Sequence to fold (369 residues):
Amino acid sequence: MEDEKSTILVTGGCGFIGSNFVRYLLQNRPGWKVINLDALTYAGNPANLAGLEDDPGYTFVHGDICDAGLLAEIFASHSINGVVHLAAESHVDRSIHGPMDFVRTNVEGTCRLLAAALKSWRRRGEPESFRFLHVSTDEVFGSLGPQGFFIESTAYDPSSPYSASKAAADHFVRAWHRTYGLPAIITNCSNNYGPYQFPEKLIPLMILNAAEGKQLPVYGDGSNVRDWLYVDDHCRALLLVLEKGRPGRTYAVGGGAEQTNLEVVRLICRLVDERLGRRPDQASQGLIRFVEDRPGHDLRYAIDSSRIRSELGWRPRHDFLSALGKTVDWYLDNPDWVESVRSGAYRNWIAANYGRRLAGEEEASGREP
Ligand code: NAD
Ligand code: TDX
Fold:
């Protein structure tokens, strides 16, 4: 990557990780430019990047990664020397109910983006410094038993339509590198948590339900294990891989913080109760309900991050308990954001500012038990 005057196309920059990453990049690489291409689905909220509108380094493009014409226009009008591809349908439960959106965005959209990036890279004389960073997930590897870890060479074995679509995308990224030489890199990361995560995912859903005295739906018996990574640590890994990662290489990125879902929910109950000064007889643990399991629910994810640690010097800096506490504070301190994503009120803002609504969308709302 060129050190100065880098122009990075970030896709999905209005989502959870995307918005954290855009802010992280602009703060840590002054002088770089970010073009954020986002379709603003239910998960993409421009308020996640409030305050950047007037930043001369930031350009927002409202559009779809499946729109080949728009991609050609973006690559033609900016000297893009890096792509960080985060746009995706990202929620496993939604993929179970409606897999085709996942095929469209995660597979077709990734291929359209690869094709546009390749064309631009070739037109500019195939600069060695160009990077296409595809942000993927540890879910492509399927489920671990009680022992062992995923590493970069673990065989793909996805369980859900979401993880199958991400696995397909990963294969296409590798194919574009091996067949056409595009300098592409893949990261496979574990579960993220932190500010701006849409409250359909476990941690924000449980924080908000606990705070509001609503039931806390734990799938199955709550013994499934996830390896939690604070979103800032992920952003730092992504920037490092973008700048120092080797084309054609994959990096597995994990938090080294394995927890059962039940442990996570209990911790959240404790943290929320402390913040709200609740008495023991008001403890929100009493709201936990064991509900029907997710079909194809992977038992355990855990990542061995040795490669990115030894080759690039990365390691997570945030420990789970304190970063979970910060996350609880953020959700309790930002009721307006919570209200706007739950009510879908920001959709009106999008309609007013961008003049069109996307077809076929569900109402955005936190799921109630
Ligand atoms: P998110 O659902 O919060 O955000 C996705 C963003 O992509 C939204 O802003 C949405 O509007 C945009 N988008 C969706 N379809 C689009 C399209 N067709 N064209 C343009 N934009 C579109 O997702 P997230 O949790 O921030 O995840 C970001 C990426 O990281 C995804 O690729 C996901 O697979 C990957 N990932 C996420 C996690 C996690 O724990 N959240 C872990 C590992 C990898
Ligand atoms: O209400 C719930 N109850 C529950 O028990 C929800 C929403 C989840 N769960 C369980 C299912 C999982 O075992 O909690 C765990 C975490 O669930 P999610 O937050 O939906 O995340 P997960 O399915 O693990 O996938 C996440 O991490 C990997 C992201 O959504 C993906 O985009 C990422 O690739």
Notes: Residues 355-369 have pLDDT under 50 and may be disordered. The radius of gyration is 20 Å.
